[in-house]
C-alpha cells in the first residue's frame, strides 16, 4: 500500500513517526513538499519517505491520502486536485465537515475524518475516526488506539475535547513555572509535574470503568490539601470556564 500526505506539518510528522514505530506494512510514503524543512527531515530519517513535486503528485501516487493542512488551505487546494474513485482520503482538518469535504473533493472516494494527536508519534493515544471504516480502524489501531464514532455530530464532541490540548499543557507549564519560581531547577520541575500527571492519568485510564467522580472523591480528605485545592478552584469558576470553553469550541465545530 502507498500512503500519501498533503501538508507536511506538525500532525503529519507525528503520524509518520508513529507509522514507522508500528509494524504496519506499506510500500512507500509520499509527502507534499511543504513544509520544506519538515519534509526534508522526514525523508532523511526514513528511507521509505519520498517528497513529491506537488500535491497532485501525492494524490496520483497514493492509495490512501491524508490531509494535514489548515482548514483555509484545504478549502483552497482540494477543489483543484483530481482524485480517483475508491481512493481513501483521511482528513485531519478540524473545521471542515464531511459534507464540505465531499463537495470540495468532488469524487467518490472513501472519506474519513480522523483526530490523531501528537503522542501518536510515540505510538500513544486515541485516534477518533468518523464515519466507521474497518481498514482505517485497523490502521490506526496499529499506530495508536482507534475510536470509531458513527455520527459526525457526536465526533465533534471529541474534536472539542481535542481542542483542550494546549490548555492542558498550559496547566503543566503553570505548575512547572511555579516550582521554578520557588528555586527548583526547570528540568526537575517539569519532570516532576509531567511524570505525576502522566501517572495520575495512567491510573485513571487503567480504571476507566470507574466513574471519574470516584477519583475526585478518593483523592481528597476533608480539610486536606487536595480538598482545599479543588474547592478553591471550583469557587473561582475554574471548571465552569472549562465547560464554557468546550461549549464554544463545539459551537464553532458544529458550524464548520
Ligand atoms: N496539530 C495537532 O495536534 C492536530 C491534531 C489533529 C488535527 N489537526 C489538524 O491537522 C491540520 C494540520 O495541523 P498542523 O498542526 O499539523 O498544522 P501545521 O503544522 O501548520 O501544518 C500545516 C502544513 O501545511 C503546509 N501547507 C501550507 N499550504 C500548503 C499547500 N498549499 N499545500 C500543501 N501543504 C501546504 C504548511 O507548510 P508551510 O509551513 O510551508 O506553510 C504546513 O507544513 C489542521 O487542519 C488541524 O486542524 C492538528
Descriptive keywords:
ProC C-terminal domain-like fold, Rossmann fold, alpha/beta, 2 domains, globular, binds NADP nicotinamide-adenine-dinucleotide phosphate, 256 residues
Structure in words:
With about 260 residues, the protein is an alpha/beta fold. It is about 55% helix and about 15% strand. It folds into two domains: about 1-150, NAD(P)-binding Rossmann-like Domain (Rossmann fold, 3-Layer(aba) Sandwich); about 165-255, Orthogonal Bundle (ProC C-terminal domain-like fold), CATH 1.10.3730. It has helices spanning about 10-20, 35-45, 55-60, 70-75, 100-105, 135-145, 150-160, 165-180, 185-205, 210-220, 225-235, 240-255; strands spanning about 1-5, 30, 50, 65, 90, 110-115, 125-130, 145-150. It is globular, with a radius of gyration of 21 Å. The protein starts with a strand and ends with a helix. The chain binds NADP nicotinamide-adenine-dinucleotide phosphate.
Amino acid at each position: 500500500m502507498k500512503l500519501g500526505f498533503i501538508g507536511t506539518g506538525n500532525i503529519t510528522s507525528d503520524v509518520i513517526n508513529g507509522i514507522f514505530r508500528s509494524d504496519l506494512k506499506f510500500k512507500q510514503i509520499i509527502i507534499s513538499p511543504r513544509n520544506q524543512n519538515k519534509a526534508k527531515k522526514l525523508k532523511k530519517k526514513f528511507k521509505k519517505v519520498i517528497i513529491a513535486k506537488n500535491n497532485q503528485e501525492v494524490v496520483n501516487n497514493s492509495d490512501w491520502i491524508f490531509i494535514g493542512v489548515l482548514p483555509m488551505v484545504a478549502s483552497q487546494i482540494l477543489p483543484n486536485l483530481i482524485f480517483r474513485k475508491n481512493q481513501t482520503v483521511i482528513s485531519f482538518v478540524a473545521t471542515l465537515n464531511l459534507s464540505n469535504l465531499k463537495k470540495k473533493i468532488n469524487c467518490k472516494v472513501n472519506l474519513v475524518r480522523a483526530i490523531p494527536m501528537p503522542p501518536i508519534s510515540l505510538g500513544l493515544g486515541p485516534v477518533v475516526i468518523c464515519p466507521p471504516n474497518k481498514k482505517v480502524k485497523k490502521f490506526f489501531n496499529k499506530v495508536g488506539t482507534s475510536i470509531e464514532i458513527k455520527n459526525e455530530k457526536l465526533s465533534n464532541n471529541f474534536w472539542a475535547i481535542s481542542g483542550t490540548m494546549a490548555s492542558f499543557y498550559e496547566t503543566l507549564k503553570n505548575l512547572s513555572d511555579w516550582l521554578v519560581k520557588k528555586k527548583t531547577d526547570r528540568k526537575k520541575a517539569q519532570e516532576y509535574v509531567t511524570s505525576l500527571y502522566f501517572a495520575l492519568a495512567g491510573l485513571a485510564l487503567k480504571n476507566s470503568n470507574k466513574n471519574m467522580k470516584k477519583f475526585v472523591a478518593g483523592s481528597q480528605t476533608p480539610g486536606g490539601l487536595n480538598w482545599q485545592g479543588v474547592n478553591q478552584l471550583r469557587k473561582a469558576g475554574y471548571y465552569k470556564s472549562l465547560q464554557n470553553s468546550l461549549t464554544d469550541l463545539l459551537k464553532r465545530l458544529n458550524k464548520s
